[in-house]
Amino acid sequence: MSELPFWAQTALLVGLLLGSGFFSIAETSMMAINKYRLKAMAEQGVRSAVLTQKLLNRTDRLLSTLLLSNNLLNTATTAVVTSLAISWYGNNEWALSIATGLVAFAIIVFAEITPKVIGAAYPNQVALPASYPIAFFIRLFSPFVWLINQFVEGMLSRFGLSSRQSGETSLNVDELRSLVLESGHYLPHKQRSILMNLFELESLTVDDVMTPRTRMEVLDFAKDEETLALEIATAHHNKVPLIEEDWATVLGILHVRRMLALFQNGEFSKEHLQKLIQPAYFIPSGTPVNVQLQAFQENKERMGLVVDEYGEVLGMVTPEDILEELIGEFTSHAPVNQHRAETDEDERAVTVDGAIDIRELNRKYHLHLPTDGPRTLNGLLLEHLQDIPESGLGVKLHNTVIEIVQVADRSVKTAKVFIPRKKQPGR
Fold first, then answer.
1. Which residues contact 235 (CB under 8 A, 6 or more apart)?
2. Alpha-carbon distance 46 to 40, whole Å?
3. Tell me, what CATH number does 360's domain have?
4. Do 326 and 347 lie in a common domain?
5. In this structure, are 314 and 346 located in the same domain?
6. Against a cut of 0.70, is the pTM above it?
7. Structural domain of residue 269, as residue ranges?
8. Which residue ranges does UniProt annotate as crossing the membrane (predicted)?
């Protein structure tokens, strides 16, 4: 080694450190690369992504080659520095100690920490081009790697472990939710919101999204023909449930548009009305909304009546109600489904109808009122107070102050909800 000129010795040491740094940065980038992004690139035909995916499918061979190469270069670096120190200073203990410290520092900083930090920060930019030389070294060292892997697998088998795991890594719902939340600028806010709502869909039932019976538009067959004709002519929906005196007798569903010809010809009568009634489609209470959405498609239905175990009608649900949970509310609601909301910017408060759905209130104003009990604000207040409240009474529920404005017919008609201010960072 002493016969080499100083520049050659320096170049050799730098080359060994660079080689060791290459295998360190390749190892870290290969392990840190996003497997799902890599799979998407491979499906698009990117050759380096295809090769990288093949290498990662056999992590035992990949890691064995990288670690073998890295350790050989580090050992060679130490040997070269020790040999040079002996040739320059003899067997001087101080010289050997200083040389050992310097080479350890150089390896740690330039061949380990710095390359690995870069590889972890830029895995795609490093792993894809590095896959070509790594594939070459895997073929070059394949006999040695095979021997090492046989020894490693023998040790692992004693502990009931295996270096080869079959099947692809799967993500649970919580991990998928975290991926969507961390998608950042890759997904627009609206699309990210839809995906988050999709995760919540499995926990919802038709009871959570239905229109309660008290808010449904309904026709009473027991009324006289003149009143019934007027209600049909002014109906806000095309499909309206038809009952007789009360909800205990549901005659079916009336398609209002089919009545237009009778009105034009002046032939309206209850007999004609009965001929146009379609059977009602009933949905058991507690049915998951994702199951019901598929049932709507299979049965080609657009509206269903939710009933409890005794057959009593609780409300109505449509595919639009379920879709609103995903993409937000539509703007084409009929007046019977709208709730008055008056915003007071000075007080950061909104006056709402007591029959407003709690989920809708939470979604609109970013509140956190409980949704595992009553569905409406009126029901939530009555459950919390355990009594019929008086106007002007204020309560605080889950960091939200609610003032009761109007009470009528033993229920809260209107209430003022004070929107909590968002906490400023550092306060």
1. 217, 219, 256
2. 9
3. 3.30.465.10
4. no
5. no
6. no
7. 204-331
8. 6-26, 62-88, 94-114, 126-148
